[in-house]
Structures are given as structure tokens and as C-alpha cells.
Amino acid sequence: MGSVKKEMAVFDSEAASEMMKELRVAFGSGKTRSYEWRLSQLKSLLKMAEDREQDIVQALRSDLSKPELESSIYEVSMLKGACTLAIKKLKTLDDAGKAEIVPEPLGVVLVISPWNYPLLLSLDPIIGAIAAGNAVVLKPSEIAPATSSLLAKLVGEYMDNSLIRVVEGAVAETTALLEQKWDKICYTGNGRTGRIVMAAAAKHLTPVLLELGGKCPAVVDLSINLQVATRRIIAGKWACNNGQTCVAVDYILTTKDYAPKLVDSLKHELESFYGKNPLESKDLSRIVNSNHFARLTKLLDEDKVSGKIIHGGERDKANLKIAPTILLDVPRDSLIMNEEIFGPLLPIFTVDKIEDSFDVINSGTKPLAAYLFTNNKRLKEQFVTTISAGGMIVNDTVIHLAVDTLPFGGVQESGMGSYHGKFSFDAFTHKKAVLYRGFAGDAPVRYPPYTKGKLTLMKALMSGSIFGVICALIGWSKN
Predict the structure, then answer these.
(1) So which residues are the catalytic ones?
(2) Is residue 68 over pLDDT 60?
(3) Which of 416, 457, 4 is nearest to 210 (CA)?
(4) How far does CA 33 lie from the centroid of its chain?
């Protein structure tokens, strides 16, 4: 007899509402506040990453054709590191007891994750949410179906499902989730969807953590180690998911005189990394789907841009591959200079003097990350002072994400709020102010009837003037 395929239950507003009731009851039991529960869940998450690394690598290969090194290092290893840190610091982060500030969990939180790093950006914020003692619902991206399915399976096997759930699906399921009243929503993705998430959250006055993106610039000065700089730019562009990374270098700014040297160095290093035919390289991720392939093709084929390609441009539609592509002096009003690229295309925009690049950056929206390559101390200081970005690095790219003592987040259109390390715990915690007092030393001065003497004494107390207090107590005027 043939097997009967089990029908998937429909996840709609009614199902989402019922799930929320169950999670509220479970959270209300106080189970998540237990140090033991939080520690056990973090250890389970770490064990899951260790036990099922090859399953994860295979899922990422299926979704993105992501090389094993990128999957193992940039997703699994970073997840393990975040778990290990949270476990190590949990007692310190908790800091409960007779304190002036007592951290408490927000409640039931929703994490909506993206497709480009579908493991790390699903579970990294959840580490902070669990460490803080919250119940969590994860909505992974349907654009990475293999990883989404694997996450649902693994979380079901390794985690406490009375308080940690995964909801798979697309727009309908996400809409049903957003109709519920959450205690916080964490969304990683694009600004368009970020606005939808924020609008839905506003109906319930739900706080949001939005990790968006933007056009991340890299300013390249002269008199630097050009080979090292070029390799680090490539590492932060093509060796990170083939440019499909929110902090990838989106465009380069350099002087007209220096551009030819930079271009030659980029071409040489790209060939050494990916060979003469990069479309055949197994170290280059593919474009996630046909829609994004068409979007990137549209950027390249715009009339005012197509003639500016100086390297690459080859495409393989059948396998969703686009070669590393460099463009020089594209017009500022072109699509490629006004939309986040999120792919393997890299425009180089030239200026007369390097300081002019700061005006170009500031004329656009604030990026999630900004990079500068220089040995000039004054230029470094000017860059840090005048450029507003979620984060920045001098003489490298993207590695600030791996520094757990730094917050990761955007500013204005590139996002709001931050996480990573201790900041993940803080992102999902309410810092409750608590003051403990006894019954001795009750001061009549605070109670009616109010007199001029009481007013004088209270003003002196509020100003912190010891002399004023003494004067008020003995009835003297300071004058």
C-alpha cells in the first residue's frame, strides 16, 4: 500500500492566538526565570550545534550553495561561541538579589530571521532571549527552506517546546504572528519588511529590535598595504555569501588617481581566489533564488550602468550564479548606487580628494557598517567623528560582528537596537529599578503641612548643598 502523506496543519490567526495563550501560561509559571532552566536550554542549543553540524552545513549548501568553510565558521562556530559565552557569563548577567537594578525577562518574544545566514541569525538572538528568561517563537525564512525545516526539527528535538517554538511558513504565517501581542519583536531583513513589522508592533506598543541593512561604504586611501586591503575587501564582499550579507561592502570610494591601482589589485586577487572562471568555483555561493537573480541583473543591465563593467559580469541563470563584478564610476543617480545591492556587484565611485568621500556617504542614508582603509591618523579621526553608521572598522571589513564586547546594530534606516554578547541579554531584558528602605529615619519635612522652612530645607537637600542644609536646619538664611 502507498503511504499517505500527512497534511500540514494550517497556521492562521486562530492558531497563532492559541499558541500565544499556551506560551503565556508556560511563561507565567515562572519556569524561564530559573537559572537552571536557562542554563539547560543554552547547553541544549550548544549540543545541537555540535551534534548536527554536518546536517546544518548540508542545509546551507542546499539553500545557498554556501561553501563548507563559510557555513562552519561564519554560522556554526559563531553560534557555538555565542552559546559558550552566554553559559559562562549567565550568573554575572543575571545579577539578581538585593540590587538597585534587577533584570527581568520581557515575556514572550518573536524572532523573525533572514535567509542569508539562516542558522546564525535565527539562533543568535534566541541565545540572548533564553539567557534573559523569555519564551521564544522563531519564524525562519521560507526563502531558505532546507535550513528552516532543519531548524524546526532540531528545536523540536533539543529544546523545551513548552516555551520555545518554531513556526514555518511565508507571508500568511508571518502576518498571523504579527497580529499577536508580543513583548518584543526581533526582525532581521530589509527596510521594506522592517516597516511592516514596526507598524504591526505599534498597534500593541511592542518594542522592536530591527536589524536592517543599507549601502555599506568602504573608503580606500592611498599609501596603504594594497594587497592586504584588497584581500580584506574581497573577504567582506564575495567570501561572505557572495555579497549577500547585510554588512558586506556595498560600494568603494577612492580617488581618481588611485582607482586604477585598486582595480588591478582587485582583479588579481579575485582571480587567485576564484580562478579564471569564477562561475565554476565551489567557493562562491549562488544567488538565493530567481527573484534576486533578476533583481541583480536589472541593476547590471540599466543603460547608464552596463557600460561601466570593468571586470566580471558573467552570469549563469540556470545555476543562479553571478561572477564577482566590478564597476567603475557608475552615475550616482543609478539604481545600483541607490539600492542596497546584496549581491556580488561592487561599484567603485571616485572623488577628487579622499575627504570628499565623507560627503558622499553622508548624503545618503546611514549604513549598517562603514569601512576605512588608511594609515592617516587624522583621516581615521575624521571618519569616526563625521560618519554615522551602525558600526565601523578601520583597515578591515565585517569582523566586528565576531567581537562579542561590541554591540551590533544599525542606526535610523539601517536599524534600531543592538545585540551580541552581553548586549543580547540586555536586548531582551527589562532593567527594573528597585530601592530597598527600612522604617527608621522617617523625615517629617516631606509631609504636609508645607512651611517655608520645609521648602528651604528640601531645596537644600535637592541641590546637595551641605551648608544649605545646615542653614535651613538652624533657621539661618544663606544670604
Answers:
(1) 211, 246
(2) yes
(3) 416
(4) 26
